[in-house]
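Q: Convert this sequence to structure tokens.
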Amino acid sequence: MLTAASEFYRIVIETIEEVSRTQSSNIEKAYLWIAESIKAGGVLHVFGSGHSHVVGEDLFYRAGGLSPVNAILDYNLTQIGGGRPTRSTSLERLEGYIKIIFNNYDLRPGEVLIIVSQSGINPAVVEAAMEGKALDMKVIAVTSLEQSSNAASRHSSGKKLFELADLVIDNRIPPGDAVIEIGEGLPKVAPISTIIHCLIMQAIVAEVAAHLFNQGVKPPIWMSANVPGGDAWAEEMMKQFGGARLRTQ
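A:
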């Protein structure tokens, strides 16, 4: 009998239901902002460090996903950046690093920047929000309000991600991310932030596409390259939206 797995399934389902029950109005506001930006020729930008970078990858160049998406990905802020596993942790705590990363991207006023972070306390996400605000972008935080509210900021400003964002979507995940207790004195296992964050974002994608369609706008959606017509569809999307929105000068 899979007792730990069954408990994990239960908690994930309950968290999804909690997000649906409590965050629907903020998710609605988020998809309306994104849809209006896309209608105006804008691009959705997504940033996360550590394991949160997975959310950007999940949205970028994916079958069924939106085409005008720019995933702000830095190799050194992932667990595949080489060296010790703690390398990305050290860099996301390094003030000034994110400005260098963001300077490589063409980020425009009025566009939407989504920043994903379970804790929301490290300089990487705090400064990402600051950069977005300085550029007059709409900044959306996807974070755990319970964890962030009860933790100290690691940025010299004392600010946390949720305090800087224009809109906050609370993932309803408890501090520490993991949810299964195996035994006394042991850390919990089975983190759920990736599951919940990707679910929130794909729910927003679905609403953006449906809203654009209902407004009489053909939603820019990627088609799988592994189905008939997929390559031709992808070529057309690439002509319109290309890849990452990089700064050219």
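Residues 3-240 form a domain with the Rossmann fold fold (CATH 3.40.50.10490).
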